[in-house]
Amino acid sequence: MKNENILYIVRSDLQQIVDLSKEWLPLCEQELGRFPFAFAPRAVAETDSQKKQLIPYVLVKNAKGELLSYRRQGSEKRLAQKYSLGIGGHVNDGDLRATLLQTLLAGACREMKEEIGADVVPSQLKMIGLINEERTDVGHSHTGIVFVYAADATNLKYDDELGSPEWVLPEMFDFEKAELWSSLALNLYLGR
After folding, report:
1. Which CATH superfamily is domain 5-190 in?
2. pLDDT in tens, 96-111
3. pLDDT at 75 over 60
4. In contact, 112 and 59? CB cutoff 8 Å
5. Contacts for 137 with CB less than 8 Å, ≥ 6 apart
6. What mean pLDDT do residues 56-71 have?
7. Domain extents for the chain?
8. Is there a contact between 42 and 59 (Cβ–Cβ < 8 Å)?
């Protein structure tokens, strides 16, 4: 685990703004702007269920409407070997900008460069909503802010943590082998 200060929102504050009984919901910039956020050491946030870490979770699509899918190979053991549609990770205090949206976008752009070698600017990311679940250890302490990025698939360079990257049509994605967040983000993306 990296020793860094990461972005979070207090669970009770989040519950006052969005309905956490829903596992995915559209979210607009105005709603996101109401989130009071702070930073805490990662080791503290990971063990305090009252601190919901806000994670940018980017769905990468190509010109054919396919989404990037891969098998997780990274350090997050709770997700190992599951299929994912999301690129993202913790936002740290080095990503801090004037607003929460700008801060999330800075973190997302950094993660996109690290994980798929894409030089992304914030205006290329479109926020579509929020995913939140309490069924898994990951979900209990994290909330995803979902973005979509239209990529030039020919220029991507995949990090070692992204095993077996491939492009799949959304309706062909295998929910049975997927991490829960990918299933929720796909439902949000498809609006079902």
Report:
1. Nucleoside Triphosphate Pyrophosphohydrolase (3.90.79.10)
2. 999 999 999 999 999 9
3. no
4. no
5. 78
6. 96
7. 5-190
8. no
